[in-house]
Design goal:
This protein has 132 residues and is mainly alpha-helical. The chain has one domain. A two-stranded antiparallel ribbon has the order 1-2. α1 runs antiparallel to α2 and α4 packs antiparallel against α5. The longest helix has 30 residues. The radius of gyration is 15 Å and the shape is globular. The relative contact order is 0.17.
């Protein structure tokens, strides 16, 4: 079932969403200022391509170790991210989720768009892992 949902997701918008996140990651990587957020954008791109069978968790909870992205610096980076662009990316994912949730068939895709919206608000300090 996960494979079928991933294929449908990829064909009906996941490919474009993933490419948009890759483009954003490349643009962030070009600048010196945006470089700290580029890794987060590429992680989101991987999740955007094939989100079913994966989940988003806090990196410090998963690894058991704190690092620069999970402490106060990570929180500050997330605040800057939200102010400079994360809020409208999240809003776009939420609008897609509402449109998809209208039909019963679209509900699993709406759930993934809500997860992407949540991730778009605060991507620093998060990782994507396979569901157990």
């Amino acid at each position: 079932m996960t494979l079928m949902l991933n294929i449908l997701w990829f064909v009906f918008g996941g490919f474009l969403a993933g490419l948009a996140w890759c483009l954003g990651g490349c643009l962030l990587a070009i600048t010196i200022i945006g470089l700290p957020w580029a890794g987060a954008a590429f992680r989101i791109a991987g999740f955007s391509f094939f989100p079913f069978g994966k989940t988003i968790v806090d990196r410090d909870i998963h690894t058991g170790q704190n690092d620069a992205g999970t402490g106060g610096a990570g929180m500050l980076m997330n605040i800057v991210w939200i102010l400079l662009g994360g809020w409208y990316i999240a809003l776009g994912h939420l609008i897609l989720a509402v449109a998809q949730a209208i039909s019963i068939i679209g509900i699993p895709f709406a759930i993934k768009n809500v997860q992407l919206a949540w991730l778009a608000l605060a991507p620093v300090g998060k990782i994507v892992i396979e569901k157990p």
